[in-house]
Input
Amino acid sequence: MKTFEIKIKAKSPLQLGYGKADVIIDTEVVHDKYGMPYFPAKRFKGLLYESALELAEISGEKWFKVSDIKKMFGQGKDGTAQFRINNFYLKKPEEYAEICRDWQYLNNKYRGFFTPYSVLNLYTDIRYQTTIEKETGTTKEGSLHNMRVIDAGTEFFGELVLFTENDVNLKILILALKNLRFAGAKRNRGCGRISCELLSNMDLEKKIMKEVI
Output
């Protein structure tokens, strides 16, 4: 079993929506009860899977096979993934717990001033968009839409625990991480560019990269 510390950095505004809205925001971003945005583990797992499949196709299964990917991600007969991913938060686990306590303290002491939305506003921005009528070149009535996006430069930290540590799984994981460059919605509007970086096991990363270059 091997644990990998991973950092995800938003290289552009990031729209990690979760299907909920209110009277003010049409498309919200996923966030915790304190208002801090996070990167859901399930969503990251799906992106990592797609990235691995893309590499298998590009390489003609030279580095690993699609069947290897499916087995690692629990798409095989037993349906059990060979790794576990935790949610990615704005700080490392021990720091995240501390900052949550700080926000809770401020919320209790200054109730009504430090709210989840006031915290969320520190890390996000609101974008507006409309639809233009092709015939007239004017804004289509009722098409104004807004969405919240996570600010570019925001970093998320999390861990991936690999239960089955073999050469194939290590290669799938590290290459899929290096290849993963987009996440979230509105990618055609300049959103969603990310980078993934290993904060641990970097010697292993160098070794695998040398093998495939």
In short: Residues 41-58 form the longest helix (18 residues). The helical segments are 41-58, 66-72, 93-109, 116-123, 167-179, 202-212.
